Amino acid sequence: MEQLRLVHTPGGPISYLLERKRVKNLNLRIRRDGTVVLSIPMRCPLEQADRLVEEKSAWILQGQASMRDRSLPLPPLPDRSACRMLLQQALERVYPLVEGMGVSMPELKLRAMRSQWGNCHWKQGYITLNTALARCPEPLRDYVALHELVHFLHHDHGSGFYACMDALMPDWRGRRRQLRQYGSALIPEPKSERH
Asked: Is 92 helix (H, G, I), strand (E, B) or coil?
């Protein structure tokens, strides 16, 4: 059960989501979207939860500020057909890099995902790319598409996988670092409430 609470701190008011769970300790975290979440044991008094948020207010406000600084402004998510076109183009740009290695052009599926940019279903012959990638620059879409294609050759993230990525896209690590700045794209747009 979640409850939204507000605590007034010296740095300003902090709202947080309170979750009562079967845990032993109080667990405070900040989600990628800046939401503060506190999980507490079932019998923990509310005053103790509020007190912890107040005690950790400097850490919370600093964490939220650094998340805002790291995330980049994002263009709106294009419609589904534009997403398909952008992600299909990324796949077609990088496919020639693996074509000579015996990888067949996979089927492309699209899905809005909360925590992954893509995944490879090598046994079934398809890859899934996150529709949120359509909000990212072309070089980052290409990186994710190639990452998934390389999984047809190396099914895990072992040394062979990384050696292959190094050979095919020498700057992939820089692109992966850049992609982290677009993490807010993974969070679905808020849905409007019906009254």
From this structure: helix
Helical packing angle, 57-70 and 46-55, nearest 10°: 60
Token pair 């677009």: residue: 182
Separation between Cα atoms, residue 138 and residue 143, nearest integer Å: 9
DSSP annotation of 1: -
pTM for the predicted model, two decimal places:
0.64
- Range in 40-49, 64-73, 96-105 the model is least confident about: 64-73
Q: Alpha carbon of 171 to those of 89, 162, 176: distances in Å?
A: 20, 12, 9
What is Dmax (Cα atoms) for the chain? Answer: 64
Quickly tell me which residue has 């020639």 as its tokens: 96
pLDDT digits (tens, 9 = 90+) for 8-18: 888 888 889 99
- Specify whether the CB–CB gap between 146 and 127 falls below 8 A: no
Q: What is the pLDDT of residues 117-143, one digit of tens each?
A: 999 999 999 999 999 999 999 999 999
Phi, psi of 178 (to 5 degrees): -65, -40
Pairing state of beta strands 107-111 and 27-30? Answer: unpaired
Phi-psi region of 120 (alpha: psi -120 to 50; beta: other; left: phi over 0): beta
The Cα–Cα gap between 110 and 84 comes to 7
Contact present, 153 and 100 (Cβ < 8 Å): no
